[in-house]
Structures are given as C-alpha cells and as structure tokens.
C-alpha cells in the first residue's frame, strides 16, 4: 500500500454509562490511502458510527487515535465532510441556503459570489434538487432532504467524505442514481470515502475495500476484502459477474455465518455449524438494523424492483 492518507491506530472507545464503562470498540487499526473508497459493514450496534465519528473529530477515542495527512484529528474540520443518516439540515434555511452555508465556509476566499452561486446550483443539480432550492427542510420529503445533505457534503470538495448510511432512506431508483453519481464524483474528486452501509450490494458496487466489523461489545475489524473490480462499474453487467458474486457471498458469509450472533462473536465456530445457508442465490443482501440471534436470512422478491432481496426474519 502507498503511504496512508488516513490512519486509525489502536483505536478503542469506552463510553461512560450509568452501569459503568461500556467498551464499544477495541483496537481498531485501519490504513486508508488517498482516494480509496472504504465501506464499513457490520451488524447493528457494533460500532460503525462510533468509528466514523472519531474520524469526523466528533468523538475522541479513549485509546489510540486518528491521523489525517500526518495531523492528528481532534476536532471536526471542513476537509472531512459528513453525511449523516438523518441529513441534519438547518430547518430555518432553504435548500439553497443550507448548501450555501457549507460553500461559504470553504470557498469564501477563493470563489466570487457568482461562482459560489453556480457551484451551489451545480451540486444541487447533481442530486436532482435544484428545482426545490427555495423550499425549507420541513417542506420536502426525507429522501429529498437526504439528497440535499449529500449535495452539501459534496459542495465542500472534501478530502475525506464520511457517510453514515447515506442512501438508507431512499427509494431504489433514487438510490441507484445517487450511487452512480457518487462513483463518478469520487473518481473526479479523488476524495477518500468511508461509508457505513447495511447493503451488501451497495458495498461491493461502490468500494475498493470492505471492512467488516465483529459484533460488539469490544468490536474490532474482523475481515477486510479488497474489491478488485475494474471501474467504471456498471450495476447491470456486474450482477452476473463471477468476481462480483464471489465478493458479495464473502460478505454475506462473514455477517451471517461468522458473526451471526450479536454479542457472541467468540462462539463464531459454533455458530458456523448451526448457521443456515446464506442467501447465495439472492441478488441483494440488505441487513436489517436489529436482527437477533434467532434471525434467519430469507430471499423474497422486492415489491419495488421484483429483484430478490435478502432480509432477516425473526423466529
Ligand atoms: N454516547 C454513547 N454512550 C453510551 N453508549 C454508546 C454511545 N454511543 C454509542 N454507544 C454504544 O456503542 C455501541 C456502538 O454504537 P454505534 O452507534 O457506533 O453502532 P453502529 O454499528 O453504528 O449501529 P447501527 O448500525 O445500528 O447504526 C452500541 O452498543 C451503542 O449503544
């Protein structure tokens, strides 16, 4: 690997709780090169957002730390834009003004007012939201607000883009459109991306590397998978690609065999023996946010797309 652009070394995180310290993360070591697209995947509550928040500078690790381009990360900064699950827009500002706030913060000194205006509109067009530029967050849908959150992050031309399930709340068509747009923009900007996702197909399609986390408490990195599919990637042709199918099965196997029982990762071998066959023949693996140890993977046609969808049922 070339020199790391972003490096997490020995990151552990213990939260103070009324019941005493809760060890969420234990010794996360991760080196990411400039322009790499890394997905973090793991069962609900394993600590993905905690890792992202440490890189964002919103949380301080209890042990270890994060270094970006040779500088320790201690606080948030505009070179690390974050797209949150719940889009986090300012409710009193219009769509345009929400993006403008970020653009002004980063480009106040380097762009004229007219250039900034064009740049804001360009980023809103990327996510197909320019038509709603004068609306406020309360007047648009959750999916539209999420798109504005993505436009706001992209408009900062961040060196690192941190995304916490950015497409989770979107319908299948919008999600596919934005995934394709993100792949193009990332190639163009050469931004480093860390994205949390529960969608196995999304992870394989977009990533250079998938980092799979063990179940908490004291979660750590269980496996890493380099996705060596040529770019640009096309979702339709990839669906039948042997390498693509192999990658998605490797992730499903990690999640549903090796890490099947949340909180019982040390019994991974036993769980493997008892695990149901993963949804090898399904075309989309989507993790549900709260599967229990009694969960099983099922395949069912999606109402929206007709595609088979891997989901988790509780018995
Ligand atoms: N501020 C906090 N105080 C106490 N415990 C916390 C705090 N933040 C997170 N945790 C705990 O740390 C663990 C990891 O949480 P985190 O939100 O990082 O998981 P996650 O993998 O992102 O979950 P999900 O996929 O459901 O979003 C969880 O058990 C959570 O309850």
TrEMBL record:
SMART domains named among the record's database cross-references: AAA (SM00382)
Classification via InterPro entries: AAA+_ATPase, ABC_transporter-like_ATP-bd, ABC_transporter-like_CS, ABC_transporter_ATP-bind, NO3_transporter_ATP-bd-like, P-loop_NTPase
Tell me which domain of life the UniProt entry assigns to the organism this sequence originates from.
Answer: Bacteria
* GO annotation, cellular component aspect: plasma membrane
Cell location = Cell membrane
| UniProtKB keywords | ATP-binding, Cell membrane, Membrane, Nucleotide-binding, Transport
User: Which intervals carry biased composition (Basic and acidic residues)?
Assistant: 262-272
Give the residue ranges for region: Disordered. Answer: 262-315
Q: Where is the ABC transporter domain?
A: 6-240
Which family does the UniProt entry place this protein in? Belongs to the ABC transporter superfamily.
Protein name from the UniProt record = ABC transporter ATP-binding protein
Q: What is the lineage of its organism?
A: Bacteria, Pseudomonadati, Pseudomonadota, Gammaproteobacteria, Pseudomonadales
